[in-house]
User: Fold this.
Amino acid sequence: MSRIAPPAESRLSDWYPGASLTDSFAVALPPGAPADVDTLATLLFADPPAWFTILLAIRDRVMTPFGVKASHTLSGGEHIAFFPVLSRSTDEIVLGADDRHLDFRASVLLRRTDRTVVVATTVVRCHNLLGRLYLAAILPFHILVVTDALRRLRRRLQRS
Assistant:
């Protein structure tokens, strides 16, 4: 698992300029792993650890009095975990939501070369001071959550 430059081939690339946060992390999949982005995105967000569920509950409790949407109220038709699916292609799923304090997008992208790599990219655009403060507060947890999810995905696929 490694931090990489945001992928130019992502549907999120037009969000990179002017973003408050752009980060990408990648993990190589073991041989024989599913090569379908829907399955991999679902596995990436499936069965989060208890500490993540607790952090999310704290986030919802602290932020909703400020008018920030609770995670379970994010609107949209199709979801992966609690994230609304905004678009999909053969090799990429884009998730995200817009709120008054910030808009965020997350991409799960497959790079198919001599080995298949999953790239998780997050892009955030803050709208106001609340968005910037929120982003500063959650950034260390965001990195921990994304890197842990990618490591757990790789371990889960190695056992299958």
